[in-house]
Amino acid sequence: MSGTFNVCPECRSSVALDDGVMVAEIVDCVDCSAALEVVSTEPLILALAPEIEEDWGE
To answer: Fewer CB atoms inside 10 Å of the end CB: C or N, the chain?
Structure first.
């Protein structure tokens, strides 16, 4: 698999990403299973993905 690597903001382990990764894409950390969102591609920045909250029909 060709691609780039970045660091998980949760556990600081290495996360492999495909070359064609896009902003707002969600990837998972293999070590801690955290859902990570690609915030920027230039430079490549990962952040914890926001949790989906229930709106209860509001």
So the answer is: C
